[in-house]
Write a structure and sequence with these properties.
mainly alpha; 3-stranded antiparallel beta sheet; two-stranded antiparallel ribbon; elongated
Length: 160
């Protein structure tokens, strides 16, 4: 799949135990993986709309430079990363027999990485040499982890 993909290594004993049970059960886990991917897609978009990291940490506010740039351009949107919704709308679920997640696609890769991890803009950008704070939107928070465990549990019980 084209686009930016961030693989998150979890350190949750509960998720690992559920995945081990899933492997022992055998069979096709695609239905559970599809449901997990769709759940993570909804959660990621919710984090984005709430302007917060998956752990609930609020994103850094818009800089004065960005606010001035928007005012000069006549843009009235003051929400973080919501001017065009390009990044939010490029978040897509993916799944297979043994994987599930979300990634960004299209031509948003450099922009997506800059927003997720932060960094300094290139000399050729609209605002050259500007430090951009990390505004993570991909990842698993506690609520996300609980949702994945609920889906895996339902699958193990034959309810997915």
């Amino acid at each position: 799949m084209a686009g930016t993909q961030i693989q998150i290594e979890h350190n949750s004993d509960a998720i690992q135990q559920a995945l081990n049970q899933l492997l022992q059960r055998g069979g096709d886990a695609s239905p559970a993986m599809a449901e997990i991917a769709e759940f993570l897609h909804r959660q990621t978009r919710d984090h984005f709309d709430q302007e917060q990291a998956p752990d609930g940490t609020p994103w850094a506010p818009l800089s004065e430079t960005t606010q001035a740039f928007r005012a000069e351009a006549g843009v009235s949107v003051n929400r973080i990363l919501h001017q065009s919704l390009m990044l939010r709308d490029q978040i897509h679920p993916f799944w297979g027999a043994n994987e599930a997640g979300v990634s960004t696609g299209g031509n948003t890769e450099p922009y997506a990485a800059m927003q997720q991890f932060g960094g300094t803009t290139s000399p050729q950008s609209m605002i050259p040499g500007k430090k951009i704070p990390a505004r993570p939107y991909l990842g698993l928070g506690e609520v996300d982890e609980d949702g994945v465990l609920d889906i895996l549990g339902a699958f193990l019980l034959g309810n997915v």
